[in-house]
Amino acid sequence: MKENANTRLIFNDKSKYLFIGVGVLIAGGLFISTLLLNINTPFLCTLAGTKFDSTSTQLETILHYATSRVTPQQSQAEIRLSFDVLRARAPCNFLVFGLGHDSQMWHAFNPGGTTLFLEEDPKWVDTVLHDAPFLRAKYVKYRTQLQEADQLLQSYRSEPDCNPTKQIPLKQNEKCKLALNMLPDEVYDKEWDLIMIDAPRGYFAEAPGRMAAIYSAAVMARNRKGSGVTHVYLHDVDRRVEKVYAEEFLCRKNLVKGEGRLWHFEIPSVVNSTVKSDLFC
Ligand SMILES: C[S@@+](CC[C@H](N)C(=O)[O-])C[C@H]1O[C@@H](n2cnc3c(N)ncnc32)[C@H](O)[C@@H]1O
């Protein structure tokens, strides 16, 4: 009797382990087949969420432009200059000066990447985000005015903290007025693969003008530690200030393409360069 009881016990234990073993095998098989079946589609909730989000915002964008009478200001030929680079580089880090009717488009061109918009007008930030809450936009209070453009261009050479050889990080640069030192930390913490300068406004005397955006984009690009160049796009180069500042800080030698009122620069890093110059170009 006692032996029978022991045998039953052992048998019960054995069947318990067998049961667990078979369970583990089935679960493992299911896991692996799910993996193989979903090799092109994410199987984890978080990844699935990411994929769904990027597809869904692109669908939202198609719906938006298909039903909007307002189109972006840049022409198709101008847009193509950054579109082609984004096709090759996305997902990447894309910094855009200004929110506009083009914002949803820029965001959609960089699926899975980081597209961050910097905007001078807080009310306009609210308006744009109300319609497209998936955009990432930050308000920026500029410390320049367009009417100071000529004086800033003359005086920056005598301000040591504007000098590129000193390599002062933008965030800590209080003295050089062309340095954007008030941006959200994320801007300084990331390396931007593409920078689009189509803002702030620069068509009336009290507007911030694009002087600081151009200077700061040049500094960010020159200080890049990662591989490759930084692509910088500047719109409205038919205007004197944009043209003069581009030639001073982004440099003719880095100008790779132009279309309409848009210039495309490829700016190499100078981090490992042994040649030190007081000039940007
Ligand atoms: C110079 S515009 C460039 C617009 C952009 N390229 C586009 O296609 O819409 C950029 C700036 O103008 C201002 N802006 C543009 N559209 C606006 C609107 N509908 N209402 C108020 N401000 C606007 C914002 O301050 C923005 O940063």
Number of strands: 7
Overall outline? globular
Oligomer: single chain
Helix content, binned percent? 40-55%
- Would you list the SSEs in sequence order as H and E? HHHEHEHEHHEHEHEE
What is the residue-mean pLDDT, rounded to a whole number? 87
The percent range for strand residues is: 5-15%
The assigned structural class equals alpha/beta
Separate helix tally: 9
Name the poorly predicted regions.
28-50
Roughly how many Å is the radius of gyration? Answer: 27 Å
What binds here, in terms of ligands, is: S-adenosylmethionine
Span between N and C termini? 98 Å
**Which strands sit side by side, in order, in the main sheet?**
3-2-1-4-5-7-6
Biggest sheet overview: 7 strands, mixed
Can you tag this structure with a few keywords?
281 residues, alpha/beta, seven-stranded mixed β-sheet, binds S-adenosylmethionine
Textual characterization of the structure:
The protein is an alpha/beta fold and 281 residues long. It has 9 helices and 7 strands, in the order αααβαβαβααβαβαββ. Strands 3-2-1-4-5-7-6 form a 7-stranded mixed sheet, sandwiched between helices. A hairpin with a 2-residue loop joins strand 6 and strand 7. Helix 8 runs parallel beside helix 9. Bound molecules: S-adenosylmethionine. The site of S-adenosylmethionine (SAM) has 16 residues, from loops. One of its GO terms (cellular component) is Golgi membrane.
